[in-house]
Amino acid sequence: MHIIIQSGKNVIAIDEILGIFDHSDTCIEQIEMDRNPRIPLHPELRNFALQVLRKNTPLSLLRSECTAWAEKKWPGSVGDNHSRYRLTTHDTSSLYCSISRECGIHQRTAAEENLDKWFRAEKPQPPSPLLTTTCLHYQAHEKPKTDHFEIILSTPEMQAAAWKFGHKRQVLMDLTFGVCSAQALLVILMALDKNGAGIPICFIMFTARETAKATHADYDMALLDRLLGIFKQKLGCNEHGEEIDFSIGNTDNDPREHTSLSNHWPGILLLLCMFYVWQAWRNMLNRCLQPVPKGEQRQLVRKRLGKLLMDLLKEISEHAAAMKRFTEEVDHWKKVCRKRDASSKCQGLAALDFLSYIKTYIENEAYWISWSPAGAIEAARWLKVPVSRITRTTNPLESFNGRIKGKYYKPYQHSGRLPRIDVWILLLVMAVMPDFFKERENKKELNEFYASKH
Fold first, then answer.
1. What distance in Å separates the CA atoms of residue 186 and residue 176, rounded to the nearest whole number?
2. Residue 309 burial by Cβ neighbours in a 10 Å radius (0-12, 13-18, 19+)
3. 256/251 Cα distance (integer angstroms)
4. Torsion angle, CA of 86/88/94/95, rounded to 10 degrees?
5. Does residue 181 contact residue 419 with C-beta atoms inside 8 Å?
6. Beta bridge partners of 184
7. pLDDT bucket at 112, cuts 50 / 70 / 90
8. Any idea what DSSP says for residue 237?
């Protein structure tokens, strides 16, 4: 008998259903054979993998090191009846969870819960006392009381470096984003030692508002000004009763950073990062040259204007000379515009369009000093050091950012995802900065050793 059951669009024969049940044992046996048995990782191999991870080893190296270690200990064997000697994908997740628990971050806890537990004013429970001594300011994000999460971090070594290398000297300041999975912005203050090496002295982090469309633009001068003021206040005074004072400051083109620094250190001489200035000029030049056909015509204009920009940025140290050089360039392109051929007119108009933009950098002498060689000369005079000792870029700070992202945080980026904000802060305080100052001390001892052998 062949009975048909119809349900909506599905038509099923009863004998087919009965046939499935008749062979159900066979199907279950087949599924069980296809599924890999649950054999745990060998405890010794797991302990070795944890030791490797504690050194911030990337995932690719972790697997190769574990494979080599297992092959040496159990040559030619993949496992036994009780455990296996090879890592799988789910092993790495379990290992990372174990490392996080060691650091005080338990699985399935929210980042804001951990941060509040570590830094709250009443009965904080940090995984290390270093977190307490490092945190100069903490504000949890409580709806609707606050708009931002805020934290200011400076380890005791960083605070000492601020007084030793930053007080009445040159500092770098940069604001960046995309350092952790949260929508947070990070401000870094960096001092420079006598060799020009950068030393971070403060990290200021705050989250963007939930309504923000762009994380990098969701802050104003008042917020930055207030947080810088808290940092200055928390550093207190030195043995002479002086507050921390910065003489020279390097920033990018953001006016909010300039104003905030000037508000707290009115006498500071602000220098614009030469790299950011050049980047802004290059982007504008590309836009202005779009009407000029690609090839030799466009390259001719670009080459001549590029020579002007390099002279202004690196060679000319007097404002009158800069204005004269600029005027000569304008006169040249006006003559080109008066030619009858269409290509010359196109070249001249594009060049003059760009020069009208450059004029805003030159006509105000105070602004011109901030990015020209004259600024470095003035800064050297203030600090009574050679001009070569004055840093005109924020490259030491950018280098530090790239180094910690690659060395410390990359192992915690699962499938390219950035680390959580609590992991980022914990690693910064417990690993990044202690290692940074330890390396500086090692270099100092090595240099002293070499000096003793001369």
1. 5
2. middle
3. 10
4. 50
5. yes
6. 207
7. confident
8. B
Local structure of residue 416 (DSSP, 8 states): G
Q: Would you state the pLDDT for residue 167?
A: 96
How many whole angstroms separate alpha carbon 85 and alpha carbon 66?
Answer: 9
Which one is predicted more confidently, 154 or 97? 154
Q: What angle in degrees, to the nearest 10, is found between the helix axes of 274-288 and 296-310?
A: 150
DSSP 411: G
404 within 8 A of 190, measured Cβ to Cβ: no
For residue 424, give both structure tokens. 């980022």
> In this model, does residue 415 exceed pLDDT 50?
yes
Tokens of 48: 């070795």
d(CA 351, CA 288): 7
pLDDT at 332 over 90: yes
Taking Cα atoms as reference points, which of 293, 276, 328, 338 lies closest to residue 307? 328
pLDDT of 213: 56
Encoded amino acid at 384, one letter:
K
Residue 292: predicted pLDDT: 93
| 0.85 exceeded by pTM | no
DSSP state of 247: S
Closest by alpha carbon to 260, among 190, 175, 362, 363?
175
Mean per-residue pLDDT for 159-185? 91
Q: What is residue 14's predicted lDDT score, i.e. its pLDDT?
A: 42
Residue where the block lists tokens 């996080």 = 100
Please name the amino acid found at residue 357.
Y
Whether the CB-CB separation of 355 and 296 falls below 8 Å is answered with: no
Phi, psi of 74 (to 5 degrees): -125, 75
Q: Look up tokens 């953001």; give the residue.
A: 254
| Summary mean pLDDT of the chain | 85
* 18 or 243, which is more confident: 243
Tell how far CA 334 is from the center of its chain: 44
4 bridge partner residues: 13
Residue found under tokens 């429970």: 125
Confidence of residue 2 (pLDDT cuts 50, 70, 90): very low
ω into 419 cis (within 30 of 0):
no
CA distance 396 to 196: 8
Per-residue burial over 394-426, b = 16 or more CB atoms within 10 Å of its CB, e = otherwise? bebbbebbeebeeebbebbeeeeebbbbbbbbb
